[in-house]
Input
Amino acid sequence: MNARCEELAKILDAEREKLTIEEPMDSKRLRLGLMDPPAGAYNQYFTNHFFADAEIRGLGMNLNTIDHCLRDDKFTMEQIRVIAGYMLPFSGEFLDYAGLRDVWKYLSEFIEMVNTIDEKEDLKNVCRALMIYLNYVHAWTHFYAPWGAGGSAFNFRSKEERAGLEAYFASEDALKKAYPFDRGQKNLK
Amino acid sequence: MSEKRILIEWPSLGAKVQMCKTDKNAKMFDEYCNRLPYHALQIHAMVAGYQWYHYSPCVVDEVTDLIDYNPKLDEIDDGWLLWTPLAGLVGCAYGHNTEYLRTIPIAKVRDEDLETLRSVGKRIWESVMYTKEIIEVRYSVIEA
Output
């Protein structure tokens, strides 16, 4: 058992419990546009919130992959270092810039552990604690994302609106060209 | 004779429902119950459909032997509690979902609680989409 890893796992569990129903400061900074430097092109931060929310969601999934690799005998520590190197730093640094400072603080500490610790067993607990912590932070960015600012502008078209479009476009082919509606794999029989 | 159930409570809404074990994914139900109680911030799916979810600290290392029912999300009845392969994510379909990815139903809401589940679902949607009213969800196991 590695004392550093266990210590970080304990900190992450405690932090996660603290932020379960109390918004973390980083999330608040993100939604109020108080990050420095001001992340968001052309003097707005609406886009930053969406990108950060998507990025931390994906980062939790990537940590899930590392968690599986640590518990799977088919992966060596050397291989896990390579995978982690591809999957973790870019997202983490972006989230730091986006305003989620603690996420990068803890993630970069974990990456340093992955790069210097040779026993997979030592990393299992801390990886899982970090993954759950990230997910709980994501709950906040998801919750406060300004969904309502756009939702009503993107309602699916009603039957009547679609009928109007069909009347406007002379053929089904012309309609599909302008509005490439697709049923996905459900229609692939 | 008593049976084990999952009690889900939303204290700020004054609402609660009970989820029952079925003959589907019964081993997974037990495994999940072993990891309760916990609490979380209640959020809602933004794409899949009428489904609320939250993250949990419950992670199961190997689920292959625990799963015997793995339907597509758009083909299940309303009222299923859903386990997902994404670590710790627990959802609940309270209406139709258009997403056709496979899911792992582990417990079914009591018939008498289905309407509560639906009205809570709508309230959660409004909270995440518009009002930003913080809703805590609590899970525990009860004998009923």
Remarks:
- Residues 46-70 of chain A form the longest helix (25 residues).
- Residues 71 and 124 of chain A are 7 Å apart (CA to CA).
- Residues 157-181 of chain A form one domain.
